[in-house]
Design goal:
The complex is a heterodimer.
Chain A (H helix, E strand, L loop, with lengths): L7 H8 L5 H13 L1 H18 L10 H50 L2 H10 L7 H10 L2 H25 L3 H5 L1
Helix pairs in contact in A: 1-3, 2-3, 4-7
Chain B lengths: L7 H9 L3 H23 L2 H17 L10 H20 L12 H11 L14 H13 L3 H12 L4 H8 L3 H24 L1
Helix pairs in contact in B: 1-2, 2-3, 2-4, 2-7, 3-4, 4-8, 6-9, 7-9, 8-9
The chains are: A mainly alpha, B mainly alpha.
């Protein structure tokens, strides 16, 4: 038995107490008879003891309390985020509807004011040349209020859509950073 | 009669149901071990604090998606280890670069370890206990980071092999191999130092 010395694997499992009772008993029997293996196991145990005695870093005393406070603050934010989500979704839908509505109003106003006809004539007849009067006539024909309202509703919808994405996936930006 | 402390999984389930005190209990239970590991890996108290806090914030943000039936501790440490890797990468790009690569001399040692190994004379055995502990501390610093990590989890955090495997997402046998190679390398370093 003593001739068949322990392998490193055997020794490791023995020292780490990772073997079954029977294998351990057989190992004990061998170790009782074999001084070489006994010395190796003792060495392994000594190293293990030194490893178990490695110093632990001491966390600041208030760290757990600070983390708990940060976690609760984050949970509060999370609850507020969830409460905000339906409101943002409703506001977004409303803004989109307004943008569509003002868009249609703008198209109708373009047709009513004859802006499209004006532009068609201006571009197809070369005898018309640019003059301050033609420019003023074009500006007067533009439905500026409808264009402004439609753009305002569109920008509002875009901002709200961004808000909604941030609310649904609050960590997306953080993880990207 | 003293009440038994709740298991991690019970506290996790209660946290999921909105019980803030349960999550606080988890924070109190694991702040020191996570800080300890993060400090060991990053060697910077501020970074270690940040990693510890961020670990719990990540957990609280993904609370609904965490499985209550799986062991919580390895999952928690996996997040902490990944955050340490990120922090180390930002700070010193090479520190953790070989976490997933094999150490060259360890492969050479592997065949020998299957047979009989380390019969070399061991001068470190003659060292006094205090001196040996100091030498072991220094010797660990010379190990590749992935070996330092398994050593820290096994001997400082008292993880079982299975918990290390879950925390590092490695097969159990790979964990065994990492630990064995880490200790072989430690012995070699100690013998060099002890002999000199």
């Amino acid at each position: 038995m003593a001739a068949n010395h322990l392998t490193s694997d055997d020794m490791e499992q023995y020292v780490e107490k990772q073997m079954g009772d029977r294998a351990r008993a057989a190992m004990d029997e061998h170790l009782a008879a074999c001084a070489i293996c006994g010395a190796r196991v003792a060495r392994g145990q000594k190293l293990d003891a030194a490893l178990h005695a490695l110093p632990r870093a001491r966390a600041p005393q208030d760290l757990a309390a600070r983390i708990s406070a940060a976690v609760e603050w984050r949970m509060e934010q999370e609850r507020a985020r969830r409460a905000r989500m339906p409101l943002i979704a409703v506001a977004l839908s409303f803004s989109l509807l307004l943008a569509v509505w003002f868009g249609l109003e703008m198209i109708i106003a373009f047709q009513d004011n004859g802006v499209l006809d004006f532009l068609a004539v201006f571009t197809s007849h070369s005898e018309f040349s640019y003059s301050p009067d033609t420019l003023m006539a074009l500006i007067e024909a533009l439905p500026l209020s409808e264009v402004g309202l439609m753009l305002f509703a569109l920008v509002t919808a875009l901002v709200l859509a961004q808000q909604l994405v941030d609310t649904i996936r609050p960590n997306a930006m953080q993880f990207r950073r | 009669m003293l009440a038994l402390p709740s298991s991690d999984e019970t506290l996790l389930t209660q946290s999921k149901q909105g019980d803030a005190s349960s999550f606080r209990a988890l924070v109190e239970r694991y702040t020191a071990p996570i800080y300890n590991l993060a400090y060991r890996l990053l060697r910077d108290p501020m970074d270690a604090e940040n990693v510890t806090q961020e670990t719990f914030l990540r957990i609280v943000l993904s609370l609904e998606r965490i499985r209550s039936d799986a062991p919580f501790k390895p999952f928690l440490f996996r997040i902490a280890i990944n955050l340490c890797r990120d922090a180390a990468r930002k700070k010193r790009p090479l520190l953790f670069s070989d976490l997933d690569s094999a150490a060259p001399r360890a492969d050479a040692d592997e065949d020998a370890s299957a047979a009989i190994a380390d019969d070399a004379p061991t001068s470190w055995e003659r060292l006094e206990e205090q001196e040996l502990h100091a030498r072991v501390r220094d010797a660990i610093d010379t190990l590749p980071p992935k070996y330092q990590l398994v050593i820290a989890l096994r001997y400082v955090e008292d993880f079982s092999y299975a918990e290390i495997a879950q925390a590092l997402d490695l097969p159990l046998n790979t964990v065994r191999t990492h630990l064995r190679r880490a200790k072989q390398q430690l012995r070699l370093v100690l013998e060099d130092v002890g002999g000199s």
